[in-house]
Amino acid sequence: MEKPIIYLESTGKENTQLVIDAAIKRAEELGIRQIVVSSTTGYTALEMAKAAKGKMLKIVCVSYQYGVKEDGKWEMETDTLQELHNMGVEVVTQSHLFSGIERAISNKLGGTSRTDVISNTLRSLFGQGFKVVVEITMMAADSGKISVTPGTEVIAIAGTGHGADVAVVIKPAHSQRFFDAQIREIIAMPRVRQ
Fold first, then answer.
1. Which of 48, 121, 125, 151 lies at a 20 to 30 A Cα distance from 55?
2. Which residues span the domain enclosing 48?
């Protein structure tokens, strides 16, 4: 099988619509019905929901936990969360798969955790958005928002900083079975990363 990959000349928000359109097209070609989107403020998830309107797609927005930038605070506004719910988007809010308590131990005591090694390897070789698509797929699986059955594939979308610049077809797995996940196809990614 031959499929083109969209190689982007830059990272960032300006790629969002192109990546979303390519992801929806590939979902339709493969009969994939679940799309997982990384979205801190809700921007990318809203753009995805608008583009997917009228299509038989389940959109899952994965955001990080409260307290990342300020204790007790979340980056998504209440109005945005309500708009996502009104559009049928399911929202997952939880600790990043590759950080959490492992990062707290490394920050306090020094050294590097095994999860840091995985995270930094993905980020170094493929870029920030690529690391995030793996992470959010497992976060969505662990929260029960996507199917994790033999033969299941989902599309995961993420970006570098803001917006979307990476999309992949991925066989999901729960975090305790991390090595069962498989990137099956790259739909789009930046050619040069930050």
1. 151
2. 6-64+74-95+124-190
Q: Is residue 148 part of a domain?
A: yes
Whether 105 is covered by a domain: the verdict is no
Residue 37 within any structural domain of the chain? yes
Task: Find the CATH number of the domain harbouring 18.
Answer: 3.40.1380.20
User: In the β-sheet with 182-190, what is the strand arrangement from edge to edge?
Assistant: 6-8, 182-190, 166-171, 154-158, 34-38, 58-64, 90-94
pLDDT in tens, 118-160: 888 888 888 889 999 999 999 999 999 999 999 999 999 999 9
**For the chain, how many structural domains are there in total?**
1
- Other beta carbons within 10 angstroms of residue 14's beta carbon come to 12
Cα gap 11→193, rounded to integer Å? 7
pTM greater than the 0.85 cutoff = yes
Q: For residue 155, give the DSSP letter.
A: E
pLDDT tens, 90-113? Answer: 999 987 777 777 777 777 888 788
Q: Which residue has the tokens 């305790």?
A: 176
